[in-house]
Amino acid sequence: MPLSFRIAPSPTVFRYSTVSATAAAVGFGSVKQHCRIPNPGVATRSGFCSGGVVLDSGKRRGSYVATCSLETVNVSVGQVTEADKDTFWPIVKAAGDKIVVLDMYTQWCGPCKVMAPKYKELSEKYQDMVFLKLDCNEDNKPLAKELGIKSVPTFKILKDNKVVKEVVGAKYEDLLAAIEAARSG
């Protein structure tokens, strides 16, 4: 059964619900439009927009779509999704009871570049989690500050919209242990 959710124009208001594949395929409105959103460095995903509401395409298990303000971001488990200050919290909230793992990095950070392929492998291994990346550039500085980042890379693990674990530095084994602890706890 696919996971489908709706996020209203305000990024703080959202609903999610499980729906049957038939309901997801039919949609919830009479106007249906196909949406394709490219994300640099990660795979492009597709979904359906209906009456201003974005729905799960119903074509891929574990795939879902988030919308906030003026932007739509497609998220699939098993892949890393680039988030920003406008899409991060709506994605986290829409993930529901799924664990969210966040990689906070910068373009110029050497250790971040070393961890990137390992992080991608983790996203492929842990299909029951959502893996996000946040470039801690000037645009995303308010969110980075809100999340308390002091150095990069920093990995945050969120459960029920709250940070439950943190790993600072390019410490793969520590990140793996934190993910396992979050899954079992």
From TrEMBL:
Q: Where is the Thioredoxin domain?
A: 59-184
Q: Which UniProt keywords apply?
A: Disulfide bond
Supply the InterPro entries for this chain. Answer: Thioredoxin-like_sf, Thioredoxin_CS, Thioredoxin_domain
Which is a Pfam family this sequence falls into?
A: Thioredoxin
Q: Tell me which Gene3D superfamilies the record gives.
A: Glutaredoxin
Q: Does the keyword Disulfide bond apply?
A: yes
The record's family statement is: Belongs to the thioredoxin family. Plant F-type subfamily.
Q: Which PANTHER family match?
A: THIOREDOXIN-LIKE PROTEIN 1 (PTHR46115)
Can you name this protein? Thioredoxin F2, chloroplastic
The species is Noccaea caerulescens
